[in-house]
């Protein structure tokens, strides 16, 4: 029995499914499978046990279910028969898994013509932020918390390029440490997606469904807005295209977005960059192109996001050539 067949059998037993077909549709650190059974098209996402705890997986399933109970068009998780965190063996590694019903919609168009998607994404994020906070607590590890992030910085190999990347990470971390306190003084609390860029949603003509709640926490909604700015800064759009995309996004979100862009925003943008670099360091073989991009993007942010930067000049500083 090959690895896919073995995984399919384990899922069938855990969820009491009659699986007709199963295929790998996303092959990265986390892996995603599409499952067809008698009645539904399902999505099964697996997370390497080495990097994820039972608590984190349980929280993602619980918060996704909670969001689904308040938003009918959201992802709908399915509980296993035993309702415990089972491990799954795939290609000689152990994973935790989350099963959901597949959502309909199209992926984000990664070109400048996707302006309506930016508007819909802003709307969806506003709706998420205004769901009443759930009665349960966050897991111990928060992927928007700088101390938690840096604690996960490993040493997967000692190649010269990995060492150089680690030095960039330390430089960025030292800079963030100078300003982190200003973020924690007046933080709002709501459901924050945690990885709010438009690729983590599916789109139709008049709706947007958020997906991928791995980093979702009860936290500051300003982090999600900073994530969108961070993503747009690193995109290949021109300055004009970035401004158009941003305008659509804030129009979708609404007037209340203004209070989420403040003196803490530069720190939150840099925190997104820190998380991205730590992910690369721990999971990716670093080549010359990756190192050069990481270096360019990081020092661009450090150069532009100075302590004295006013929030009203933020986007101009980041995007103007």
Write structural notes for this entry.
45% of the residues lie in helices and 16% in strands. The chain is built from eleven helices and ten strands. Strands 1, 2, 3, 4, 5 and 6 form a six-stranded antiparallel β-sheet that branches. A two-stranded antiparallel sheet has the order 7-10. 35% of the residues are buried.
Low-pLDDT parts are: 181-185
Percent range of helical residues? 40-55%
**CATH secondary-structure class of the largest domain:** Alpha Beta
- Overall geometric form: globular
Number of strands: 10
What characterizes the major β-sheet? Answer: 6 strands, antiparallel
Distance between the termini: 56 Å
CATH architecture label name of the largest domain: Alpha-Beta Complex
| Number of helices, counting only DSSP H or I runs of 4 residues or more | 11
The ordered string of helix (H) and strand (E) elements is HEEEHEEEHHHHEEEEHHHHH
What average pLDDT do the residues reach?
A: 90
Q: How many independent structural domains? A: 2
- What kind of oligomer do you see? single chain
CATH level 3 topology of the largest domain: Aminoglycoside 3'-phosphotransferase, Chain: A, domain 2
Note the beta-strand portion. 15-25%
Fourth CATH level, the homologous superfamily of the largest domain? Aminoglycoside phosphotransferase (APH), C-terminal lobe
Rg, Cα atoms, Å: 20 Å
